[in-house]
Amino acid sequence: DAGVIQSPRHEVTEMGQEVTLRCKPISGHNSLFWYRQTMMRGLELLIYFNNNVPIDDSGMPEDRFSAKMPNASFSTLKIQPSEPRDSAVYFCASSPRDSTDTQYFGPGTRLTVL
Amino acid sequence: EDKVVQSPLSLVVHEGDTVTLNCSYEVTNFRSLLWYKQEKKAPTFLFMLTSSGIEKKSGRLSSILDKKELSSILNITATQTGDSAIYLCAVRVGGGTSYGKLTFGQGTILTVHP
Known about the structure:
By secondary structure, chain A is mainly β. Chain A has strands spanning about 5, 10-15, 20-25, 30-40, 40-50, 55, 65-70, 75-80, 90-95, 105, 110-114.
């Protein structure tokens, strides 16, 4: 079975540019989560969706960040404009209906903003 | 604000040693506690605990939850170099099956020397 798929795996961009990260959850999973991981702050939940609807976006750092889930098999996290402090690894995770409380993580996107 | 604290932050041992990692939490509406192992990639699921006093075991790893003390421990016996990783504790909070929000601790970095 394919796990959570994220793209790109690595992204290097210049400050001020728009960055779009993509995620395909595991088929049949109805919850999707975006996390950011840095050395300083550890793993932080940014936003999560249930049945394509954003349930909690309180972790989104500021208006430069936005996330969408247009259908059950695709989500995007966009940063516009990007800043060097956005450099981090961004993980997407999904969990199944009638969740066993486990979340399955994608491989992550390592973002570097110069 | 929900809080999850892990200790120690880092640990260096030799192969064959037994280690105990700690996780304590202060959250509202606790649902479950999860342990993850993270090597040079995404976190992978180890255990989910919901009931006090019931040990979960997988090979050399075991974990138990104490709801009275608001804590959990993760034990690793006869450690191997392949156990070197960051061990993350997370607590699931919220109400209803549609909630899956996880609050993570800062992690314990375990290094096992040959």
